[in-house]
Amino acid sequence: MSAQHNKIKWDVFYSLGIITLIILSLPPVMDWFHQRGGVRWLHILLISCLVSFVATPPVKYAAFRFNILDNPDARKVHAIPTPLMGGIGIYLAFLISTMNNAIFSRELFAIVIGATIVFISGLLDDAVKLSSRIRLLLQFFAVTVLLANGISIIIFEPGITGIILNSLLTYLWIIGLTNSMNFFDGMDGLATGLSLIISLFIGIVAFQTNQPFLGWLAVAIMGAAIGFLPYNFGPRRPAGIFLGDSGSNFLGFTLSSIAVMGEWSEKSMVSSLVTPILIFSILIYDLIYVTVNRIATGKVSNIREWLDYVGKDHLHHRIANLLGSKRKSVLFIYFLSFTMALNALLLRTADAVSSVILLFQATCILVIVTIAEIAGNKTSKANGR
User: What is the pTM for the complete model shown?
Assistant: First the structure.
């Protein structure tokens, strides 16, 4: 009886979501929001959230229908076959909310094209499995689209050497974070929640620095994550659907790409560089940690092996071993990411020295966490737990 009652409540809630989405998409309602620039972000957030929320159940049904499932094995933490392709709802939410709000620019189209390439490659990988070489090649091509449209990290002075070095850094930043987000899609709600936190702080800093266009894009990602999270991180039951490679790769690529677009500080180049590093610090930390650890222990020796390797040595696995709970691990990483990103809010007017101090402080926090979880896990193993 209780299950039936909950289903009725959910159906009502879902129907209200559809009705609200239709109302918000009516031209007079859209015009009302557009004419009030201060609340335009709210319309983008609501549209994105509702599209993601409404689109996910049909995607879940299709995943079951076509047997696109993540089946449990010794390397994975879930216990039952779970639908993939959750990224479809996320992708549609971002696309519809930005286009619906007439957010057009050369940079946006470049990001949409690049993100679509990454999204489709992830979708194919979910369905039929692509080789790591093909995935990497498609990611490389997607970043090339951004570079061709002026989206690049700018650190070195203009010139042939400067362009090459800036381009290499852009490839490393976006491809690295795209795959790091994919690695974090290993526990219920983890990659989705991290994307929500990262997009929240990108949005806040964007509005702090008077970059509304950048803020709107961040809000679109945030809304998509909010709409998907109830299906991916329930309070009492396991996730009903996973992001899949299509979702995690799309989120990692899009968030890292819009970060490249941003002007993050009014005072110094150092502050401008440190801000996104702090916001993405958990992804960067885990990427560096597992890469160094796997190379040092001989588990990987080249990029293909690095991409293909699947292990339980990521931050969320180590914290789960320490705390004895996957849910506690996810919540711990949420708060850790939020704490690290809070420092980014101080950098808008910070000088270079202050920026370096904040980065050093963040590094110390991560070192403390690393020492604690390694020591804790060793103690647990020694005690046979």
Answer: 0.91
Note whether 277 and 248 are same-domain residues: no
Q: Which two tokens stand for residue 261?
A: 């677009």
Mark whether 197 and 319 lie in a shared domain.
no
pLDDT, tens digit (0-9, with 9 covering 90-100), for 320-363: 888 888 899 999 999 999 999 998 888 777 778 888 888 899 89
- The dihedrals phi and psi of 83, each to the nearest 5 degrees, come to -60, 140
> To 10 degrees, the CA torsion angle through 57, 312, 328, 235?
20
Are 75 and 208 in the same domain?
yes
Same domain, 170 and 245: yes
Q: Which domain holds residue 274?
A: 267-385
CB of 72 within 8 A of CB of 78?
yes
Residue 69 β-bridge partners: 83
3-state secondary structure of 201: helix
How far separated are the first and last CA of the chain, in Å rounded? 39
- Give the residue from 263, 296, 329 where a domain finishes: 263
Report whether 332 contacts 340 (CB < 8 A).
no
Q: Closest Cα partner for 376 from 318, 328, 299, 333?
A: 318
Residue bearing tokens 């711990």: 332
Q: Coil, strand, or helix at residue 178?
A: helix
* Three-state secondary-structure class, residue 93: helix
| CA 73-79-81 angle, 5° bins | 80
The structural domain count of the chain equals 2
| b/e per residue 221-237 (b: at least 16 CB within 10 A) | bbbbbbbbbbbbbeeee
The string of pLDDT tens digits covering residues 39-97 is 888 999 999 999 999 999 999 999 888 888 877 655 555 557 888 888 999 999 999 99
Cβ-contact 249, 115 below 8 angstroms: no
- 176's tokens: 């690295």
Region label for 159, one of left (φ > 0), alpha (ψ between -120 and 50) or beta (otherwise): left
> Token digits for 270?
């150092």
How would DSSP label each residue in 26-71?
A: SHHHHHHHHT-GGGHHHHHHHHHHHHHHHHHHHHHHHHHHTT-EE-
